[in-house]
Amino acid sequence: MSLPAHTKQTYTYADYLSWPKDERWEIIGGVAYNMTPAPSRRHQEISGALFNVLYNYLRDKSCKVYTAPFDVRLPEGNESDAEIKNVVQPDIVVVCDKAKLDDQGCKGAPDFIAEIISAHTARKDVREKFYLYEKAGVKEYWIVHPNDRTVLTFSLGTDGKYGIPEMFGPDDEIPVNVLPGLVIKLNDIFRE
Fold it and tell me: Which Gene3D superfamilies does this one have (predicted)?
């Protein structure tokens, strides 16, 4: 689908809902981003491994974990669903506040988001989504680099800003700050 850029400057969730269901899009600040090409095999392996660890840990707990495609709507204020200009599909999402969940996905900031970057998504994940997630109040944001097998983790400070990131390599273990007691071994995530 080619969006009629000449007819509209910004897009909303109402526009998003009208687009073909067989296409994946995100909207950040009203700007539409096409989610093609499809994720690589390696991306899928890492996403599946991380989801599996989180799912097994949360199985008997109140928080829920979801994997893309899963719509996360991030309102900037009290706008209606139709007016929301930020709709993303993070690779992995953990939501602990069930009031944020509905049949369309999540409305409001998840507690945890992990994005697995690729050449196609790196700039958006590192820049646009970083600032969007920080502003929305996502407590913990991981940027997973499949090629160099590293993870950057960001935690939201009391000032509402992400502090200096921590970097973890393939032999490290990462504590998930929003899920006390959970430590993820990166060798399990990056296993080939």
Answer: tt1808, chain A
